[in-house]
Amino acid sequence: MTPSSAAAYELAQVNIGRLAAPLDSLRLKPFADGLDPVNAVADASDGFVWRLQGEAGDATDIRFFGDEWILVNMSVWRDTNALTAFMYQGQHRELLARRREFFERLEEAVTTLWWVPAGHRPTVEEAETRLLHLRAHGPTEYAFTLRTPFPPGPANPVPNPVPNPVPNPVPNVVPNPVPGPVTESVSRSAS
Protein backbone atom coordinates (compact mmCIF):
# COMPACT_ATOMS: atom_id res chain seq x y z
CA MET A 1 0.00 0.00 0.00
CA THR A 2 1.35 3.41 -0.86
CA PRO A 3 1.76 6.13 1.79
CA SER A 4 -1.02 8.20 0.21
CA SER A 5 -3.49 5.31 0.35
CA ALA A 6 -2.47 4.56 3.97
CA ALA A 7 -3.38 8.18 4.88
CA ALA A 8 -6.86 7.45 3.53
CA TYR A 9 -7.37 5.22 6.60
CA GLU A 10 -7.26 5.78 10.34
CA LEU A 11 -7.06 3.24 13.15
CA ALA A 12 -10.17 2.63 15.25
CA GLN A 13 -9.82 0.90 18.60
CA VAL A 14 -12.27 -0.29 21.20
CA ASN A 15 -11.61 -1.78 24.60
CA ILE A 16 -14.06 -2.71 27.27
CA GLY A 17 -13.93 -3.58 30.94
CA ARG A 18 -16.54 -5.03 33.29
CA LEU A 19 -16.54 -2.99 36.49
CA ALA A 20 -15.53 -4.79 39.69
CA ALA A 21 -17.61 -2.31 41.74
CA PRO A 22 -19.87 0.67 41.04
CA LEU A 23 -18.06 3.51 39.29
CA ASP A 24 -18.82 5.89 42.16
CA SER A 25 -17.44 3.46 44.80
CA LEU A 26 -14.35 4.08 46.90
CA ARG A 27 -12.68 1.10 45.19
CA LEU A 28 -12.96 2.77 41.77
CA LYS A 29 -12.19 6.32 42.93
CA PRO A 30 -8.58 6.25 41.58
CA PHE A 31 -9.87 5.09 38.21
CA ALA A 32 -12.74 7.62 38.09
CA ASP A 33 -10.42 10.44 39.21
CA GLY A 34 -7.99 9.50 36.43
CA LEU A 35 -10.49 9.62 33.57
CA ASP A 36 -10.38 13.35 32.84
CA PRO A 37 -6.57 13.70 33.07
CA VAL A 38 -5.98 10.60 30.91
CA ASN A 39 -8.54 11.76 28.33
CA ALA A 40 -6.88 15.21 28.24
CA VAL A 41 -3.50 13.59 27.51
CA ALA A 42 -5.07 11.42 24.81
CA ASP A 43 -6.77 14.43 23.22
CA ALA A 44 -3.40 16.25 23.03
CA SER A 45 -1.38 13.23 21.85
CA ASP A 46 0.34 13.16 18.48
CA GLY A 47 -1.77 11.04 16.16
CA PHE A 48 -4.99 11.27 18.19
CA VAL A 49 -8.05 11.85 15.99
CA TRP A 50 -11.26 11.25 17.99
CA ARG A 51 -12.73 9.50 21.03
CA LEU A 52 -16.21 8.36 21.99
CA GLN A 53 -17.86 10.72 24.47
CA GLY A 54 -21.18 10.85 26.23
CA GLU A 55 -22.79 13.80 27.94
CA ALA A 56 -20.16 13.88 30.73
CA GLY A 57 -17.25 14.20 28.29
CA ASP A 58 -16.18 10.57 28.72
CA ALA A 59 -17.91 7.33 27.73
CA THR A 60 -18.97 6.08 31.18
CA ASP A 61 -22.66 6.62 30.39
CA ILE A 62 -22.55 4.66 27.11
CA ARG A 63 -23.59 1.00 27.25
CA PHE A 64 -21.79 -1.82 25.46
CA PHE A 65 -23.58 -5.13 24.82
CA GLY A 66 -26.45 -3.60 26.81
CA ASP A 67 -24.59 -4.29 30.06
CA GLU A 68 -24.56 -1.43 32.59
CA TRP A 69 -21.40 -2.86 34.21
CA ILE A 70 -19.32 -2.75 31.00
CA LEU A 71 -17.39 0.45 30.33
CA VAL A 72 -16.30 1.19 26.79
CA ASN A 73 -13.37 3.19 25.49
CA MET A 74 -13.34 3.83 21.76
CA SER A 75 -11.07 6.12 19.80
CA VAL A 76 -9.52 6.75 16.39
CA TRP A 77 -5.79 7.29 15.86
CA ARG A 78 -3.50 8.03 12.94
CA ASP A 79 -1.89 4.57 13.19
CA THR A 80 -0.77 1.82 15.57
CA ASN A 81 2.42 3.71 16.51
CA ALA A 82 0.43 6.73 17.75
CA LEU A 83 -1.93 4.52 19.77
CA THR A 84 0.92 2.52 21.31
CA ALA A 85 2.87 5.65 22.21
CA PHE A 86 -0.12 6.94 24.18
CA MET A 87 -1.06 3.63 25.83
CA TYR A 88 2.25 2.97 27.55
CA GLN A 89 3.07 6.36 29.03
CA GLY A 90 2.20 8.44 32.08
CA GLN A 91 -1.02 8.12 34.01
CA HIS A 92 -2.64 5.84 31.40
CA ARG A 93 0.12 3.31 31.96
CA GLU A 94 -0.32 3.62 35.74
CA LEU A 95 -4.06 2.96 35.53
CA LEU A 96 -3.51 0.12 33.08
CA ALA A 97 -1.15 -1.53 35.57
CA ARG A 98 -3.92 -1.33 38.21
CA ARG A 99 -6.61 -2.75 35.90
CA ARG A 100 -7.38 -5.77 38.15
CA GLU A 101 -8.34 -3.44 40.99
CA PHE A 102 -11.03 -1.82 38.85
CA PHE A 103 -12.25 -4.45 36.38
CA GLU A 104 -13.17 -8.11 36.48
CA ARG A 105 -10.94 -10.53 34.61
CA LEU A 106 -12.67 -11.61 31.40
CA GLU A 107 -11.90 -14.74 29.39
CA GLU A 108 -12.75 -13.26 25.99
CA ALA A 109 -10.84 -10.60 24.10
CA VAL A 110 -11.79 -7.11 25.27
CA THR A 111 -9.82 -5.04 22.76
CA THR A 112 -9.88 -4.89 18.98
CA LEU A 113 -8.59 -2.61 16.25
CA TRP A 114 -9.72 -2.00 12.69
CA TRP A 115 -9.05 0.47 9.89
CA VAL A 116 -11.70 3.03 8.99
CA PRO A 117 -11.79 5.49 6.10
CA ALA A 118 -10.32 8.83 7.20
CA GLY A 119 -13.06 10.95 8.75
CA HIS A 120 -15.30 7.99 9.70
CA ARG A 121 -16.35 7.86 13.36
CA PRO A 122 -17.28 4.33 14.40
CA THR A 123 -20.45 3.58 16.34
CA VAL A 124 -20.78 1.41 19.43
CA GLU A 125 -22.69 -1.13 17.31
CA GLU A 126 -19.81 -1.24 14.82
CA ALA A 127 -17.35 -1.80 17.67
CA GLU A 128 -19.49 -4.60 19.14
CA THR A 129 -19.54 -6.32 15.73
CA ARG A 130 -15.76 -6.03 15.36
CA LEU A 131 -15.08 -7.34 18.87
CA LEU A 132 -17.43 -10.31 18.37
CA HIS A 133 -15.72 -11.01 15.03
CA LEU A 134 -12.29 -11.06 16.71
CA ARG A 135 -13.62 -13.44 19.38
CA ALA A 136 -15.09 -15.77 16.75
CA HIS A 137 -12.28 -15.72 14.17
CA GLY A 138 -9.14 -14.43 15.86
CA PRO A 139 -7.16 -11.56 14.32
CA THR A 140 -8.09 -10.82 10.71
CA GLU A 141 -7.91 -7.69 8.58
CA TYR A 142 -11.51 -6.99 9.74
CA ALA A 143 -10.70 -7.03 13.48
CA PHE A 144 -7.19 -7.41 14.88
CA THR A 145 -4.89 -6.68 17.82
CA LEU A 146 -1.68 -4.72 18.32
CA ARG A 147 0.17 -8.04 18.49
CA THR A 148 -1.27 -9.13 15.14
CA PRO A 149 -1.78 -5.94 13.10
CA PHE A 150 -2.89 -5.67 9.48
CA PRO A 151 -2.05 -2.89 7.01
CA PRO A 152 -4.53 -0.07 6.34
CA GLY A 153 -7.20 -0.80 3.79
CA PRO A 154 -10.72 -2.06 3.28
CA ALA A 155 -11.67 -5.33 4.97
CA ASN A 156 -14.58 -7.72 4.89
CA PRO A 157 -15.71 -9.99 7.70
CA VAL A 158 -14.85 -13.67 7.57
CA PRO A 159 -18.00 -15.58 6.62
CA ASN A 160 -19.46 -17.71 9.39
CA PRO A 161 -19.52 -21.41 8.55
CA VAL A 162 -22.69 -21.85 10.64
CA PRO A 163 -25.81 -20.01 9.46
CA ASN A 164 -26.89 -17.22 11.81
CA PRO A 165 -24.76 -18.07 14.84
CA VAL A 166 -25.71 -16.22 18.00
CA PRO A 167 -22.55 -15.47 19.98
CA ASN A 168 -22.80 -14.69 23.66
CA PRO A 169 -21.97 -10.96 23.73
CA VAL A 170 -21.70 -10.76 27.52
CA PRO A 171 -18.17 -11.75 28.54
CA ASN A 172 -17.50 -14.71 30.80
CA VAL A 173 -16.10 -13.52 34.09
CA VAL A 174 -13.06 -15.05 35.73
CA PRO A 175 -12.77 -14.46 39.49
CA ASN A 176 -10.43 -11.58 40.29
CA PRO A 177 -7.07 -12.72 41.67
CA VAL A 178 -5.43 -10.79 44.48
CA PRO A 179 -4.32 -7.45 42.97
CA GLY A 180 -0.77 -7.60 41.71
CA PRO A 181 1.31 -6.77 38.66
CA VAL A 182 -0.44 -6.93 35.32
CA THR A 183 1.29 -9.19 32.82
CA GLU A 184 -1.40 -10.00 30.30
CA SER A 185 -1.34 -9.31 26.59
CA VAL A 186 -2.29 -6.02 24.97
CA SER A 187 -5.24 -7.64 23.24
CA ARG A 188 -6.96 -8.02 26.61
CA SER A 189 -6.07 -4.63 28.06
CA ALA A 190 -8.46 -1.73 28.44
CA SER A 191 -7.91 1.86 29.24
In short:
By secondary structure, this protein is of the alpha+beta class.
Descriptive key words:
single chain, 191 residues, alpha+beta, four-stranded antiparallel sheet, two-stranded antiparallel ribbon, disordered C terminus
Provide structural commentary.
- The structure is a single chain.
- The model is unreliable at 177-191 (pLDDT under 50).
- The protein has helices at residues 3-6, 29-44, 80-87, 90-97, 99-102, 124-137; strands spanning 9-18, 48-51, 70-77, 105-106, 111-117, 173-174.
- The strands form two sheets. It has a four-stranded antiparallel sheet, with helices on both faces. A two-stranded antiparallel sheet has the order 4-6.
- Helices cover 28% and strands 17% of the residues.
- It is built from six helices and six strands.
- The protein is α+β, with helices and mostly antiparallel strands.
Task: List the strand order in the largest sheet.
Answer: 2-3-1-5
How many DSSP H or I helices? 6
Order of SSEs, N→C?
A: HEHEEHHHEEHE
Low-confidence stretches: 177-191
Provide mean pLDDT, rounded.
84
Count of DSSP strands? 6
Radius of gyration based on Cα positions:
16 Å
Structural class: alpha+beta
Biggest sheet architecture: 4 strands, antiparallel
What spatial form do the alpha-carbon principal axes imply?
A: globular
Q: Which percent range fits the helix content?
A: 25-40%
Strand content: 15-25%
Distance between the termini: 30 Å
